[in-house]
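The records we work with from here on pair a chain with its fold. These numbers are not coordinates but entries in a learned vocabulary of local backbone shapes. To see the layout at work, look at the sequence and tokens printed below.
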Amino acid sequence: MSEQTLASVTSIGDLEAPPAPDAGALLQRTALGDEAAFAALYDTLSPSVFGMAKRVIRNPARAEEVTQEVFLQVWQTAPRFDPSKGSAKSWVLTLAHRRAVDAVRHDQSATNRDLAYDWSPGIDHDEVVETVTVRLEHEQVKKCLSGLTELQREAITLAYYQGYTYAEVAQALDANPATVKTRMRDGLIRLRDCLGVES
């Protein structure tokens, strides 16, 4: 390679892009309210902030929102930046990571809420069908209760519809507690069979 070619290669190296602006200096100027410095800081760091947010969130549109939120936070909190604790870029990326994680948590929480309430758009609650169903079930239970012996029917009614304990049912019916338990068990088996409920 000739010296002249080597000289031309060296001069091409001189044509490289100027070094990136110092993010620390831009952030300090931003803290003083310098909008031009903030714009330059945005141009310098937004690709890194967006990349960080996109890796955490995995949704480009949501990552763009987080990037905007981060730079709003940078504008509002720039005076808090302390260069003795780290670089401006690491400070901004820490804000971005925290904001992205918060976004994931928020989105997951919203998803969990939707699943917990099993919200289904377009499916209306039909009160008429529900009322008719409850009435039919009630009539079926009454019919099946009428097929029990008097002691079974009274014991089950007191225990399940009026909240009595076995001892209270026995006292109300003037019967032995063991007899009441046996009659209730037999009555419940007959009710189950009558209602078509599988055990």
Residues 5-9 have pLDDT under 50 and may be disordered. The radius of gyration is 38 Å.
